Amino acid sequence: MPELPEVETTVRGLARILDGARLARVVTRREGLRRPFPADLVQVLTGALVTGLGRRAKYGLVHTDRGQTMVFHLGMSGRWRIEPEDLGLHDHLILETGAGQRLALCDPRRFGSVDLVASDSLEQWPQFAVLGPEPIGAALTPAHLKAALAGRTASIKLMLLDQRIVAGLGNIYVCEALFRAGIDPRKAAGKVSGAALVRLVPAIQAVIAEAIAAGGSTLRDYAQPDGELGYFSKQFDVYGREGEPCVRCSGTIARIVQGGRSTWFCPRCQK
C-alpha cells in the first residue's frame, strides 16, 4: 500500500501539472473504486480552477475554486499517471487541463477512493476528524505520544499504526523508525520511557523526510506520477531484511507477526 511518503511524492508530482490549472474535461470510466465516485464529481470538477494541492495522512487533496476539495486515496495499488500515451483498462478517472495535459488515476485492485468534501469543512470530514497529528511538523511531540500511549498495553508497533495516535504512519516506516530509536516493537506502548519517546519523534520525522526525498519506496505497484520509481527501499535498515546482519550491531534482523502484519527488528539493539 502506498504510504505517506508515496502520497506526498504523488501530490508534489500532480502539483506540477494541476496547481493553477483549469480542468477542461473530467471523465469517469467506471462507477467507482472501493465505493462509487460522487454523483456530482464530473459536474463539480469540469471547469473548476485548481487552487492548490495538499495531503492529510495518506489522502491527497486537490482544492478547487468551487469550494470543494477532491480527496483521493490510492488504496493498495493506485497511482496517478501523467500524460499516458494510451488509456488502459485500469485508468478509472481522467482529468484534462485547459493546457491539454492529461492525468489518469490507475487502480488495478480498486481499493482506492475519490470523494468531494467542502473545503472549509475538511477537518470535520469523518475520515479526518479522528486522525492524530501528522508525523512531520510541530504537532507530533514526545508529550503528545506520552499522553496518547499512557496505560496502553498494546505494543508500541501497533499503537504507532493506529491513525488516531499518529496520522499516516504505515508498516514500513514504523519498523524503520523504531529501529532508529532503539525501541523493541514488542514493548507495551505505555511502558516506553520518556527518553525513548524523545528519540522516537525525530526518528519518525527523519525516516519520513528521507523517504519523501527518495521518492518513496517502490513495492509492487507503486510508482510516481511521472513513472519514476521510489528508491527509499534501497535504504531500509530492517524492513524485509530477515536473517541479514544488523547495520548497527552484531545482531541479526528478525521478523515477527504483530496484528497480522510483519515486523522486522534487531532483537539485540532494540530494547
Distance between the ends: 28 Å
**Secondary structure category:** alpha+beta
Helix and strand run: HEHEEEEEEEHHHHHEE
Q: What can be said about the biggest beta sheet?
A: 4 strands, antiparallel
Would you report the number of β strands? 10
The helix fraction, in percent, is: 25-40%
Shape: elongated
Low-confidence stretches: 218-223
Radius of gyration: 20 Å
Strand content: 15-25%
What is the average of the pLDDT values? 92
The total count of helices amounts to: 7
Describe the strand arrangement of the main beta sheet, using strand numbers. 1-6-7-5
Describe this structure in words.
The structure is a single chain. This protein is of the alpha+beta class and 271 residues long. The protein is 25% helix and 21% strand. It has helices at 4-18, 41-45, 126-129, 142-149, 156-161, 171-181, 194-213, and strands spanning 23-28, 50-56, 59-64, 68-73, 79-82, 91-97, 102-106, 113-118, 254-258, 261-265. It has a four-stranded antiparallel sheet with strand order 1-6-7-5. Helix 6 (171-181) crosses helix 7.
